[in-house]
Amino acid sequence: MVRFRRDEMSDVNSFWYWTFLLSIGMFVGSLILIPILLVTMPVDYFTSSTPLRTRLRRMHPIIGTCLIVIKNAVGLLLVVAGLIMLVTPGQGTLAIFVGLMLMDFPGRRSLITRTLGRPKIVRAINRLRARAGRPPINSPPGRLRECSPRT
């Protein structure tokens, strides 16, 4: 028979307690942060010829670089949190998607437009934007189907 000492059991209980708190925190955080990011996203996010990274670099070099680093760090944090939320309560897939939208990596724009080519995703984003009184996102020509939110 396996016997646990009292302090070993408290360590196990402490681990599950902090895991539970972290899971609840990520769930609540994703419910707040992801809709804010999707609603505040510019209408021309996918059709703009000048990506945000280029616009940030036009600023003062130090400020622009700091903002790019912060944007990528938040994106990485959302991707990691999304991966965790795939097995815990939360909006894992959506968090990963928004994290990838924020990060800079080769092929990002192609990945995003392929993913958003799914009418259900576009409808969900546009429905969220409509509830917030924002116009629907513009679709890149030939890549996304125009999907207006259902009423």
What is the average per-residue confidence, as pLDDT, rounded to a whole number? 77
Q: Main sheet?
A: none
The residue fraction in helices comes out at: 55-70%
Counting DSSP H or I runs of 4 or more residues, the number of helices is 6
Low-confidence stretches: 143-147
Rough shape?
globular
Strand content: under 5%
Provide structural commentary.
The chain has about 150 residues and is an all-alpha fold. The protein has six helices and no strands. Helix 3 (about 60-85) packs antiparallel against helix 4. It is globular and about 65 Å long. The protein starts with 5 loop residues before the first helix and ends in a 20-residue tail after the last helix. The relative contact order is 0.13. The model is unreliable at about 145 (pLDDT under 50).
Which helices and strands, and how do they pair?
Blueprint: H1 6-40, H2 52-57, H3 61-85, H4 92-102, H5 108-116, H6 119-131
Summary tags:
151 residues; mainly alpha; 6 helices
Brief write-up:
With 151 residues, this protein is mainly alpha-helical.
